[in-house]
Specification:
Elements (H helix, E strand, L loop, with lengths): L1 H27 L3 E9 L2 E8 L2 E10 L7 E5 L10 E7 L4 E5 L15 H19 L3
Antiparallel strand pairs: 1-2, 2-3, 3-4, 4-5, 5-6
Helix pairs in contact: 1-2
């Protein structure tokens, strides 16, 4: 029960983090617009536009093919048959934390004990990766 509650709270934390980060992106960068769209209690979309063209899209959701984790897919989808990254809740004798599968070459956090903030930052970095590769900043 504690792990489920922590996962749910973390998903909500990540959701707020993305909503706020997309708004800040729009405010601080001329020509960019970040759009947050909550699909349901277990899924949201994040889209970044530059001058009206989408340059990054992501889906973050709970559940799916690997069980009860928090998952990331590049692009927007309502399916649960694929993912680019997954975070799972684990525990030691002192605390609950998240671990990354490290499926993306960008992610160097495999095996690290991530806080809610660390998990949100990791997933936000995945969304921002296409923009950084394009050097559109």
């Amino acid at each position: 029960m504690d792990k489920d509650r922590f996962r749910d709270e973390t998903f909500e934390y990540i959701s707020r983090y993305f909503d706020n980060s997309l708004s800040e992106l729009s405010e601080r960068n001329t020509g960019y617009e970040g759009v947050f769209r909550r699909v349901d209690a277990n899924r949201f979309f994040a889209t970044i536009y530059k001058d009206g063209q989408d340059v990054a899209r992501a889906t973050i959701y709970m559940g799916g093919i690997l069980g009860s984790g928090i998952n990331y897919i590049q692009g927007q989808t309502t399916t649960e048959s694929s993912l680019n990254e997954s975070l799972t809740v684990d525990a030691d004798d002192q605390s609950l934390y998240l671990t990354s599968l490290g499926m993306s070459s960008f992610v160097h956090a495999r095996g690290q004990k991530l806080s809610q903030e660390g998990a949100a930052e990791l997933l936000w970095g995945l969304v921002m990766q296409p923009l950084q590769q394009r050097s559109t900043w």
